[in-house]
Design a protein that fits this description.
Blueprint lengths: L2 H14 L4 E6 L14 E6 L3 H9 L5 E4 L2 E2 L4 E8 L12 H4 L10 E10 L1 H8 L5 E4 L5 H6 L10 E7 L10 H10 L2 E11 L13 E11 L9 H16 L3 H11 L5 H26 L5 H14 L3 E2 L1
Parallel strand pairs: 1-2, 1-7, 2-3, 4-6, 7-8, 9-11
Antiparallel strand pairs: 5-6, 8-10, 9-10
Length: 317
């Protein structure tokens, strides 16, 4: 999907009443995902590591703001365990009894520690004053505590991307089942899971094998069926959700939400959006036909077969 398609849709929705979109990036090391790289999305990031924070600030755009702080369930001083691989660092200690079963467990070696202050999503949201539309949380085991610290502001969130483990990577961490239960209780629906598999440490390298599911990147959308769209704030949320779902590739769901919105739109607005979706589908069908109509050389077929074999089971090393 081209970014130009998302921009077209955003402009149409803005003319109807869509207001600015805000993303909270908790565990912001490396910067926001490129799918949110639009100047009309306000990005507020949180990164406790001073070096990583300074990198983010040095290259931030005008629509980005970063805090050199950790988030948790309350304001407190916390200790960060610094691991050999930076993105494995956590307020929790790695569960080496489990991790030692897999390849490269040394990346979880604790090589240092530091103390920092933490705050909550609720406290930041009160100061900032904007609704949190998109929430990304990747904090190596403390995700549930952070979500609980949002309190009533979790009700504003329309889209959530969160890393969840199926077993205890860290001591006493909440796992997927607890986080999923929290999300359901707060009116979210599970839409997608990108499963990450880990290989056991053995003395034979198997070219083709399945592996244990270790963690996943999980996508939740707010259940829009529970909202009263005669209220302006809820209709605005619906327009935002139409854009967010389209931009993240959930085209069918975006169109479903557009159909729900039609009762509250003028005929011209409905026609313009209908035209947009039809044109998008038509142009993508053309692109597929062009690509698939090109003959594949034998050497390219071999390359594709080799590549597919390597990624067959989505094995993570």
């Amino acid at each position: 999907m081209n970014k130009s398609d998302s921009i077209k849709l955003y402009n149409i929705l803005t003319s109807i009443g869509l207001k600015e979109i805000t993303l909270y990036d908790i565990g912001a090391e490396g910067g926001p995902n490129s799918i949110w790289d639009y100047d009309f999305i306000q990005i507020i990031g949180f990164e406790p590591d001073k070096t990583e924070y300074e990198k983010l600030v040095s290259r931030k755009k005008s629509n980005e703001k970063y805090y050199n702080t950790a988030l948790s369930g309350k304001e407190e001083t916390i200790k960060i365990n610094v691991c050999r691989k930076q993105n494995c660092s956590s307020i929790l200690k790695p569960n080496r009894n489990y991790l030692n079963e897999f390849l490269n467990p040394e990346r979880f070696d604790i090589v240092g520690e530091y103390e920092c202050t933490s705050t909550t999503i609720e406290n930041i949201a009160k100061i900032d004053g904007r609704k949190i539309d998109i929430l990304k949380v990747d904090t190596q085991g403390s995700e549930l505590d952070i979500l609980i610290g949002a309190n009533q502001y979790i009700n504003d969130v329309l889209f959530l991307e969160i890393e969840t483990e199926f077993y205890y990577f860290y001591e006493n961490q909440p796992t997927f089942s607890e986080i999923h239960s929290f999300m359901l209780k707060n009116g979210f629906r599970l839409f997608d899971m990108e499963m990450i598999h880990y290989l056991k440490k053995v003395d034979i390298t198997f070219e083709f094998t399945k592996a244990e599911i270790s963690f996943c990147n999980t996508i939740y959308f707010k259940d829009m069926n529970t909202l009263d769209f005669t209220q302006e704030k809820n209709l605005t949320s619906l327009l935002k959700q139409i854009f967010i779902s389209f931009n993240t590739g959930f085209i069918n769901y975006s169109y479903y939400l557009f159909q729900k919105a039609q009762t509250y739109l003028s005929k011209n607005q409905i026609d313009e959006l209908q035209h947009f979706y039809l044109n998008f589908e038509k142009s993508n069908k053309k692109a597929v036909v062009v690509e698939t109509s090109k003959p594949l050389k034998l050497k390219n077929l071999r390359k594709i077969r080799t590549f597919l074999g390597k990624i067959k089971n989505k094995i993570s090393f």
